């Protein structure tokens, strides 16, 4: 993993840590690029390909907190994990910076080399997936430029058209690259989590009631919910369905509650999915607590929310906040299931027992005496019994 370290005392601090890495057999796992010039280092932030930034705050050469300018730049231009390694107390550093989940803190002092190494390994575990993602992005980009661009260059297109086609092709390639090697999607991959910010409300968005900590699913069509670029929604209120969470799901439906083991539970979940919307209910998988604990959509428990009740961003306004979205094509599947449930014809109840009684005399397992004559049965019944007896 590549590290960029900005430290005015490179010889004393960085070189000593490199020796510690070697002593701990970690020198092959972490490659360090260092700089003792804060201004020049800022120019290299875009050029160097690093995964973690280590930065001191106080520059002993200027007696200024030059590290703050580095952090300001990072958070405006190149977000990445940062370890603040300084002799300053944590309380002396900008609280806004230290509050960010990508920022870690280690104070210099006796034995701090080992503390820094432990923090590096902790950060590496957290961001290891980013290295895999970067490698996938690089491979896709290479293949697109090698295979896709030569074919498209033969066609007369505007740069804007090429750019949009490239982005669409990149998104599709990413999807195929991730999933072609897998037989099945993980259930939680149906979600966009966290939801994409600055987008209108969509069918399949999951909203959390911040007061009761209960959930609802947006059912209104996405095209009626657009609220951007000067457009106003076409509907005054948003139709939502109640979501029951995992405990209600497992204890409220007999086929799930009585499953003797996890394999049987899997069978019954699969069976339910094939028959959805069974009884107006749709299953949604669990990602983690507390935001997405797994749900049962109840299309029989509907309500309307006014727009002022819903928050899409980080605003504290609104009773409901969007915590996740259902991604395509599962969003479209939800729309299809909603239409299937809402579009069914409501028929009056029939006496099914009478229906069965009328058929039972002709059933091959009927133990009643055979029909003997037209005096005790209709002609049709006699003929039917003859066919069965054959």
> What letter string, H or E per element, gives the SSE order?
EHEHEHEHEHHEEEEHHHEEEEHHH
Share of helix, binned: 40-55%
Structural class: alpha/beta
Biggest sheet details: 8 strands, mixed
| Form type | elongated
| CATH topology description of the largest domain | Rossmann fold
Q: Spans with pLDDT under 50 lasting ≥5 residues?
A: 371-376
Strand content: 15-25%
What is the average of the pLDDT values?
85
CATH class membership of the largest domain: Alpha Beta
Based on CA atoms alone, the radius of gyration comes out at: 32 Å
What's the total count of β strands? 13
Describe this structure in words.
- The relative contact order is 0.07.
- The protein contains 12 helices and 13 strands.
- It has helices spanning 10-23, 38-44, 67-77, 95-98, 112-153, 159-179, 246-252, 254-257, 262-275, 330-342, 352-359, 379-389; strands spanning 2-6, 31-35, 52-55, 82-86, 103-107, 191-192, 205-209, 215-218, 237-245, 281-284, 295-306, 310-311, 320-326.
- It has 3 domains: 1-183, 3-Layer(aba) Sandwich (Rossmann fold); 192-342, SH3 type barrels (Roll); 352-389, no CATH class.
- Helix 2 packs parallel to helix 3 (67-77) and helix 5 (112-153) crosses helix 6.
- The longest helix is centred in the middle third of the chain and has 42 residues, at 112-153.
- Helix content is 40%, strand content 18%.
- The chain is an alpha/beta fold.
- The strands form 2 sheets. Strands 6, 7, 8, 9, 10, 11, 12 and 13 form an 8-stranded mixed sheet that branches. Strands 2-1-3-4-5 form a 5-stranded parallel sheet, sandwiched between helices.
């Amino acid at each position: 993993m590549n590290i960029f370290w900005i430290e005015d005392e490179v010889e004393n601090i960085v070189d000593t840590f490199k020796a510690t890495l070697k002593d701990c057999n970690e020198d092959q796992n972490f490659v360090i690029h260092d700089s003792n010039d804060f201004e020049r280092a800022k120019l290299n932030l875009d050029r160097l390909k690093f995964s973690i930034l280590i930065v001191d705050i106080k520059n002993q050469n200027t007696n200024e907190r030059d590290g703050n300018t580095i952090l300001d730049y990072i958070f405006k231009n190149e977000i990445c994990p940062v370890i603040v390694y300084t002799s300053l107390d944590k309380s002396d550093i900008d609280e806004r910076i230290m509050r960010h989940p990508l920022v870690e803190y280690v104070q210099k002092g006796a034995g701090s080399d080992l503390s820094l190494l432990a923090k590096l390994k902790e950060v590496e575990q957290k961001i290891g997936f980013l290295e895999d993602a970067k490698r996938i992005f690089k491979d896709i980009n290479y293949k697109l430029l090698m295979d896709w661009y030569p074919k498209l260059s033969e066609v007369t297109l505007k740069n804007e058209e090429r750019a949009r086609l490239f982005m669409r092709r990149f998104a599709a390639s990413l999807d195929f690259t991730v999933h072609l090697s897998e037989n099945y999607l993980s259930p939680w991959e149906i979600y966009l989590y966290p939801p994409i910010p600055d987008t209108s409300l969509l069918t399949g968005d999951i909203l959390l009631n911040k007061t009761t900590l209960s959930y609802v699913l947006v059912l209104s069509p996405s095209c009626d919910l657009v609220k951007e670029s000067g457009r106003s929604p076409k509907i005054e209120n948003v139709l939502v369905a109640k979501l029951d969470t995992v405990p209600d799901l497992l204890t409220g439906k007999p086929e799930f509650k009585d499953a003797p083991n996890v394999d049987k539970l899997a069978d019954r979940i699969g069976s339910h999915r094939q028959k959805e919307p069974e009884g107006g209910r749709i299953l949604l998988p669990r990602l983690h607590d507390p935001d997405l604990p797994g749900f049962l959509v109840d299309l029989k428990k509907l309500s309307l929310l006014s727009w002022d009740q819903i928050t899409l961003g980080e605003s504290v306004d609104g009773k409901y906040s969007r915590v996740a979205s259902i991604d395509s094509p599962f969003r479209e599947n939800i729309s299809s299931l909603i239409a299937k449930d809402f579009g069914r014809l409501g028929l009056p109840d029939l006496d099914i027992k009478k229906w069965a009684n009328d058929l039972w005399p002709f059933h091959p397992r009927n133990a009643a005496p055979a029909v003997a004559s037209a005096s005790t049965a209709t002609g049709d019944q006699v003929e039917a019994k003859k066919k069965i007896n054959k």
